[in-house]
Amino acid sequence: MNGFFKTIIAGYGAKKLGGGCFGTILLFIIIFWILGYF
C-alpha cells in the first residue's frame, strides 16, 4: 500500500474514532501500524 494513502486512511480513522488529542495520536499510530502489514 502506498505510504501516502496509508497516512490519509490512518489520519481519517484516528480523527473519526479518537476523542481527545492523545487518543487521536495513539489511534493514528495503531492504525498506521496495522496498515503496514497490508
List strands and helices in order, with pairings:
Elements: H1 3-17, H2 21-35
Helix pairs in contact: 1-2
Description:
The chain has one domain (3-35). 79% of the residues lie in helices and 0% in strands. The chain contains 2 helices and no strands. It has helices at 3-17, 21-35. α1 runs antiparallel to α2 (21-35). The chain is elongated, with a radius of gyration of 9 Å. The chain starts with a helix and ends with a helix. 5% of the residues are buried.
Properties at a glance:
transmembrane helix, transmembrane, membrane, mainly alpha, 38 residues
Low-confidence stretches: none
Helix fraction by DSSP (H/I, runs of at least 4): over 70%
The largest pleated sheet is described as: none
C-alpha geometry: elongated
Tell me the fraction of residues in β-strands, as a range: under 5%
Number of helices: 2
CA-to-CA gap between the ends?
A: 7 Å
Number of strands: 0
Number of domains: 1
Cα radius of gyration in angstroms: 9 Å
Q: What's the order of the H and E elements? A: HH
Average pLDDT, all residues: 78
Produce a short descriptive summary:
The chain is an all-alpha fold. Helix content is 79%, strand content 0%.
